[in-house]
Amino acid sequence: MKRSTVGLLFALPALLVIGVFFFVPVLIALCLSVTDFDIYALADLSNLRWVGLRNYTELLSTPLFWRALGNTLYFTLLGVPLSIATSVGAALLVNARAARFKGVFRTALFAPVVTTVVAVAIIWRYLLHTRYGLVNYGLGRLGISPIDWLGDPHWAMPAIVLFSVWKNFGYNMVIVLAALQQVPEDLYEAASLDGASAVQQFRHVTLPALAPTLLFVSILTMAGYFQLFAEPYVMTQGGPAQSTLSVLYLLYEEGFKWWNLGRASAVAFVLFLMMFAVTLVQLRLGREAVS
Amino acid sequence: MSGRGHAWLVNGTLVLLALATVFPLLWMLSASLMAPGESASYPPPLVPAHPTLDNFRLLVSRAGLGWHFLNSVVISASATLLALTFNVSAGYAFAKLEFAGRARLQRLLVSGLVIPAQVAMLPLFLQLKALGLVNTLPGVLVPSLAGIFSIFLVRQAALAIPDELLDAARIDGASEVTIFRRIVLPLLTPMLVTLAVFTFLGAWNDFLWPLIVLNDNERYTLPVALAALSREHVQDSELMMAGSVVTVIPVLALFLALQRYYLQGLMAGAVKG
Predict the structure, then answer these.
(1) What number is the ipTM of this complex?
(2) Domain count, chain B
(3) Residue B42 lies inside a defined structural domain of this protein
């Protein structure tokens, strides 16, 4: 058998699966989003009608959609910088020359990343309990009166952000740690000979060296945070007063609770376009900042 | 600041940060051993007065958690096996075997990386419905059969295999399949372990897709069962913590055992980007 045929045969099973179960559905989703596919069409396809862009225009005039979009952006804009700052701080600490037991610390700080979102979100729901939760107990010891974390519309999203930072910062920490170890030691030596303080060294040596990595992790984290779903599903069920309803939560409810697959597909493409646009903007800004 | 003061500050902060990070997990373990209602008192207790395994017994006998555990094990193990079967040969082909359209296919796959999986989810559900796979184990497995990211992870590792090695085997008359099995697979073993850990953890922790596809309680995976249970048993924090323990401890143990491979894969992924 020719080697080129063999190559194709080796790749074919995976390509077929990805084609049939990923690329084809994406194309179908595009088609669905311009139809009124609902529970009647689910029962009998002859009930399906072409509606053009109506799903999209209706979506844009639905307050709930804007609410979900706003919540998702709020979560992302608050969560991404906080997560990355925590990751960088933790990485700097673990990487510090004075730090001992680096491996143990790295493992401990990374542990939440591998845990199951649903299971740990349930833990946090009890930790954040207004009366019996340890978070409010700790705050109480500091003289801060109890906060109704998951029951107050103003606090529910910040609580989910807090949870997400805890759950995810270890991931980027490991990537930043690897990047820190690539920074040549003599750069720091030269800087300290020039009398640069620790803060100045961080600003003028560490940060520029980390810039490409930070751009990369911010894009990845943002893409992940746009897909917020399990956290509100478990911790708040989208409430209170829809303050934690995310775009993906809306998609899930439209699609699999009300079976409006046409509208849900439109939501999916809006989510996709949003993620795509934000990634492009970040890449553009990042390139300008790096050059 | 003096050298020793600095060392104390760094290590002290690290200890506090690490404690704060693992605290929720430790509390979960502790609360899972408490008697019903014990954790809902003030001040909140940190350790059980009389440790008991009753919560776990109750979960197995009343909520059928043993079955959910089994479902999760079967699904995660099958996902791992399938993903290895599909992705490894493809990753190797993209790295080392020329075939018509390879470059174009590779570009197509890269472009697929930017599309979030949720876009495909709705039609995928309809496809599975047409195939009669809704509410079945194969239905849960379909999205993890093959993955673009995994293929590139393998490709990355396979690129490091010297061509001379493969060509020498070809000159000796070895078939491509033999080369793959005897030379390539052994060299890729570390990456295979990495990929296996990634896939297993991913399948075990996955929530949205099993939530959509499965609708009979007895077929639920652990996360789906746990989410359903937590809506019924909001007040039973000790019971729910036992459920979280059963869900989280296996993946934590797996991670601790194979940490090196997991972190290497994470780094390889980061370098690629």
Answers:
(1) 0.94
(2) 1
(3) no
**Residue B261 is assigned to a structural domain of this protein:** yes
> With 0-12 CB in 10 A as exposed, 13-18 as middle and 19+ as buried, what is B63?
buried
Sign (positive or negative) of CA dihedral A214, A220, A223, A227:
negative
Per-residue pLDDT of chain A (291 residues; tens, 9 = 90+): 677 788 999 999 999 999 999 999 999 999 999 999 998 888 888 888 899 999 999 999 999 999 999 999 999 999 999 999 999 999 999 999 899 999 999 999 999 999 999 999 999 999 999 999 999 999 999 999 999 999 999 999 999 999 999 999 999 999 999 999 998 888 888 888 888 888 898 999 999 999 999 999 999 999 999 999 999 999 999 989 999 999 999 999 999 999 999 999 999 999 999 999 988 988 888 777 766
Q: How far away is chain A from the Cα of B232, in angstroms, using its nearest Cα?
A: 12
Q: What is the CATH number of the domain that holds A187?
A: 1.10.3720.10
Asked if B25 lies within 8 A of A123 by C-beta distance, the reply is yes
Mutate to test the interface with B, among A26, A126, A214, A220 (most CBs of B within 10 A): A126
Residues 6 or more apart whose CB falls under 8 angstroms from that of A246 comprise A68, A71, A72, A75, A228, A229, A232, A238
Q: How far apart are CA A144 and CA A131, in angstroms?
A: 13
Burial bucket for residue A189 (CB in 10 Å: 0-12, 13-18, 19+): exposed
Look at residue A41 and tell me if it is in a domain: no
Q: Is residue A13 part of a domain?
A: no
From B212's Cα to the closest Cα of chain A, the distance in A is: 7
Domain count along chain A:
1
A122, A127, A181, A279: best to mutate for the B interface, most B CBs within 10 A: A122
Residue B17 in any domain: the answer is no
Residues 162-191, chain B, touching A (beta carbon < 8 A): 176, 180
Per the structure, the complete domain to which residue A219 belongs is given by: 63-290
In this structure, what CATH number is given to the domain that contains residue B104? Answer: 1.10.3720.10
